[in-house]
Amino acid sequence: QVQLVESGGGLVQPGGSLRLSCAASGFTFSMYAMRWYRQAPGKERELVASITRTGGFTTYADSMKGRFTTSRDNSKNTLYLKMNSLKPRETDVYYCSAPAYNAWGQGTLVTVSS
Question: According to the model, what pLDDT value does residue 41 have?
Answer without folding.
Answer: 86
